[in-house]
Design a protein that fits this description.
mainly alpha
Length: about 150
């Protein structure tokens, strides 16, 4: 199977080059590029039916080109998904067992001295609030202008 891929690639290159040459040798209807190779060259080599022969040959080369391209794409995809010998050996090798790491024993730590707990704090007794003191009414003299501050309200 591995030798088929290089053979197909070589054949693909040969068919491509042959198709380029055959297309360039064809005589166009207006005698454009075909006249550059010598108008009578293809008639002398292939006979008087050169146009028909080259057209059929171009068709067969195009079919071969597309068939080889399809085969190459299928084979390349198949080889890309398959595993190589090294990959197969690595996958079939036994998996080494992991050794558990040694468990560290805690070292003895000096215990701290006990902390003295504070004595409960007594809550203070509620303090009696004094009764509101009545403020005496003070007479305010009448002024000539408007009072800038409104009277205080209790």
């Amino acid at each position: 199977m591995s030798i088929l891929l290089p053979i197909l690639i070589t054949l693909h290159i040969l068919v491509s080059l042959l198709m380029v040459f055959v297309v360039l040798m064809q005589r166009p209807r207006s005698e454009g590029l075909g006249a550059a190779f010598g108008g009578g060259l293809t008639d002398n080599v292939f006979g008087s039916q050169t146009t028909n022969v080259l057209a059929k040959f171009t068709t067969w080369l195009a079919i071969a080109f597309f068939a080889i391209t399809l085969l190459l794409s299928i084979l390349t995809a198949k080889f890309a998904n398959s595993k190589t010998e090294i990959q197969k050996k690595l996958l079939s090798a036994p998996v080494p067992q992991a050794t558990p790491a040694p468990v560290a024993t805690p070292s003895p730590v000096a215990t701290p001295a006990p902390v003295a707990t504070p004595a409960p704090v007594a809550t203070p007794a509620p303090v009696a609030t004094p009764a509101p003191v009545a403020t005496p009414e003070v007479a305010v003299p009448a002024s000539a202008g408007p009072d800038p501050l409104p009277p205080a309200q209790n």
